[in-house]
Structure formats: C-alpha cells, structure tokens
C-alpha cells in the first residue's frame, strides 16, 4: 500500500507539472529524448505489482503517452515475407496487448509488427491472482496468466475501429498486425475454438498465429503431438480457406510452439508443418524449465512460464533445430530472451526471418525499440550483410538460403 501511495503522489505531481508547462517542454525534445523520457518512468511504475504495471503500460499507450517514431528505419532492416513488406523485423510478442487495446500506439513505437492476443472466443478471467512475478535481478518474469481475455467479439470491435481509421488515413498504420488465437480453458475440442477465432478475427490480421504452447492452460501443450497438431492445423487452415478473400488471399497461418520439446517432438512438428502447408512457426513461448541460474530467486518456485534473458539460449537452440529440420523452407519467428540487437541478430543467423520481444520492453521501456534496431543494423554491417534477409540462417552453411547473396556476410 505504501508503494502505491508513493506512485499516486508522484503521478499527481507529474500531472500538475504537465498541466503547467510539460506539454510545451515535451514539444522541444527530439524523438530520441522522447523515447528516453517515456522509459525513465519505468522504475516508478515497477513499484507496483507486475500485473498492475502491465495495465498501466496499456493505459499509457491508450492515453497517447507513448512516443512516436518518425525516423526512417535503415533500409537493411526491411523484410519481404509472405508477399508483405515489414519495415523492420522487430515485433512485439503476444501477451502485452492481449485484447487489441493499443495497436496504433504500439506500432507507432517503431515495431515492424505487433502481435495482439492471445484472444479466446469467449471472455474468461484467466488464473487467480497473483499470477505474474518478477525476477528483477535477471530482468526476467514468471507468469501464469492463463489466457485472460475479453473475448473475440470485444477484440473484433476494436480491430474494426482500427482498420476504419487506417482506411481513412493509411499513414496511421506503421507496421503489420498479427493476431494470436487461444482456446478457452473449458473447451474440449480445441479445433472449434481456433476456428471461431479465425472466423471472427482473421480478416483483421496481416497474419494469424495459432497458440498451442502456453504452459498455463491445462492440456494445451498436448496439442503439439504429431497426430493432434496435424488434425488441428488442417482444421484451422480449412476454416481460413473456406472464407471469402480478396485478390490478396487469406492471411498467412503460423503456429506458436513451446521451447520444452524433445528431439522427436521437434521432428514431428517439422513434419506436420510441411504436411499442412502452415506458413510459419513462432519459436517460442515461455518455458516451464527452471535453469540453475534462477533457482535462488523466490519467483523461480512459482508455477508458470519463464520469460526474459534466461530464455535466450534454449529458444535459440530450438529455433536453429527447426530451421535445420525444415531445411529453411518455412519462415520462422524467433522469440524468447531478446533484449538487444545482438540477441536479435543471433536469432536471425539461427534461422529467424522475424524476431519478437516483450519482457525486455517491460523492463527497459519504449527506448529499447529504436536501440535494438540500431544495434541490429550495426551487426549486419559489421558482418558484411546487406540486409536481414541475407543473414537469415547464416549459421547453417549447409542449407541453401535463397535470400543470401553470393559472397555476402561472414560465417
């Protein structure tokens, strides 16, 4: 309670200062300073519990308190994938904007894409609170949200409003929009729930992600078994293809997998992806493993999925395995532990065409978005790659890479 009072008092002081002359002062700052100022409030917000901090972040975005990126991205960061052009490969992972409340402000931060969700067909509260725990020393988090969602209908209303604004002014959409679909906890036939998500939401998406990998919904990860996954993805793909689409066709369909997989699990998933014609794989969700490096922290004993820097090594290893198993034929999205441009570059060299982050922004604030892009561009230049596409899969010299220009880049 004492911390909350302190935060409220500080917020009141800040609000008064803004009313007196803060807006005028803010208008004098360059773009980078605006990002730094927005991120400087992070330690104050983190005086609150993690879930309240999360809600404060969403509200700040909705209220227009996030900075807007107006500087162009380096040309080397542009990625062409699925017939779509990404201004850069850095995306915001699902889990931050669960209900599509702040799409435009988040895209305005300079992300190449934003993934909203997971969105379930019907509203559900998720797991009991508390359900999010910080390991601040490692800038890591454990969560067991459990797909808390306002449901597909509420999300569809917000998505409809967003696209109406874009139709009126196309410049309002700075990047691409992905929609992550989940299932309701009590649903027995998962295919039905994912099909409902496709029917209600896919028309709003630049691409759709089927989440079968959250550790916080009972039985969900069992859907990654070969037979179950092939049946599910075939059913969802057919539901998508059964809708009417314009000349651009349906949105690409991706599946998001867990990092906690055996070698046979990974081989099965690669086989299913090839058999079903899925357009891509997101690698990966949070982990139920507890590395030795976090064992001394109380939050490590909480049930749920671990995210943040401890996830970088294991998820990048799974990413590399999936690139090898699919022979580079299926676009991969690298997610897990990304906190710098060097981290993103490692994912790209391991086989990722796109890279997502979330926990790092919760700790570092919006300033991480321009920083990570600048660092990634420097990594590409350092190693002689003309573009992100040239660097994808560079750590796999025995796998042909169509985007790789002859003689470009270092091994």
From TrEMBL:
Pathway: Pyrimidine metabolism; UMP biosynthesis via de novo pathway; orotate from (S)-dihydroorotate (quinone route): step 1/1. It is found in: Mitochondrion inner membrane. This is Dihydroorotate dehydrogenase (quinone), mitochondrial. Keywords: Flavoprotein, FMN, Membrane, Mitochondrion, Mitochondrion inner membrane, Oxidoreductase, Transit peptide, Transmembrane, Transmembrane helix. It comes from Raphidocelis subcapitata. Its EC number is 1.3.5.2. Residues 77-380 form the Dihydroorotate dehydrogenase catalytic domain. Residues 402-411 have a biased composition (Basic residues). One of its GO terms (molecular function) is dihydroorotate dehydrogenase (quinone) activity. Binds 1 FMN per subunit. Belongs to the dihydroorotate dehydrogenase family. Type 2 subfamily. Its cofactor is FMN. It holds the Pfam family DHO_dh. Gene3D superfamilies: Aldolase class I (3.20.20.70). Its main location: mitochondrion. GO terms for cellular component: mitochondrial inner membrane.
């Amino acid at each position: 309670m004492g911390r909350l009072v302190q935060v409220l008092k500080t917020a009141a002081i800040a609000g008064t200062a803004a009313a007196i002359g803060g807006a005028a002062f803010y208008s004098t700052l360059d773009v980078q300073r605006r990002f730094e100022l927005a991120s400087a409030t992070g330690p104050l917000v983190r005086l609150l519990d993690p879930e309240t901090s999360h809600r404060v972040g969403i509200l700040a975005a909705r209220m227009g308190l996030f900075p807007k990126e107006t500087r162009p991205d380096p040309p080397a960061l542009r990625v062409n994938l699925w017939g779509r052009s990404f201004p850069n490969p850095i995306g915001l992972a699902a889990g931050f904007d669960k209900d599509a409340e702040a799409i435009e402000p988040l895209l305005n931060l300079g992300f190449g894409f934003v993934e909203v969700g997971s969105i379930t067909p019907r509203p559900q509260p998720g797991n009991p609170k508390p359900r999010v725990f910080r390991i601040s020393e490692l800038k890591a988090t454990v969560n067991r949200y459990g797909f808390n969602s306002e449901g597909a209908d509420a999300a569809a209303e917000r998505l409809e409003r967003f696209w109406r604004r874009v139709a009126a002014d196309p410049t309002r959409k700075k990047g691409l929009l992905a929609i992550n679909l989940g299932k309701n906890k009590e649903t027995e036939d998962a295919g039905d729930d994912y099909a409902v998500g496709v029917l209600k939401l896919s028309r709003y998406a630049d691409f759709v992600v089927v989440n079968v990998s959250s550790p916080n919904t009972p039985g969900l990860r069992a859907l990654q078994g070969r037979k179950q996954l092939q049946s599910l993805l075939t059913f969802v793909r057919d539901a998508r293809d059964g809708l009417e689409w314009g000349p651009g066709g349906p949105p690409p369909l991706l599946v998001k997998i867990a990092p906690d997989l055996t070698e046979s699990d990974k081989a099965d998933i690669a086989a299913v992806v090839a058999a079903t014609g899925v357009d891509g794989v997101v690698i990966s969700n949070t982990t139920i493993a507890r590395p030795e490096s976090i064992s001394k922290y109380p939050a490590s004993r909480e049930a749920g999925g671990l995210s943040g820097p401890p996830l970088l090594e294991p998820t990048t290893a799974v990413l590399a395995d999936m690139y090898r198993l699919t022979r580079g034929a299926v676009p991969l999205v690298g997610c897990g532990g990304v906190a710098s441009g060097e981290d993103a570059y490692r994912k790209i060299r391991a086989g990722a065409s796109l890279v997502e982050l979330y926990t790092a922004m919760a700790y570092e604030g919006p300033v991480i978005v321009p920083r990570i892009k600048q660092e990634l561009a420097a990594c590409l230049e350092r190693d002689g790659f003309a573009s992100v596409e040239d660097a994808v899969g560079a750590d796999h010299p025995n796998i042909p890479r169509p985007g790789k220009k002859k003689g470009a880049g270092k091994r």
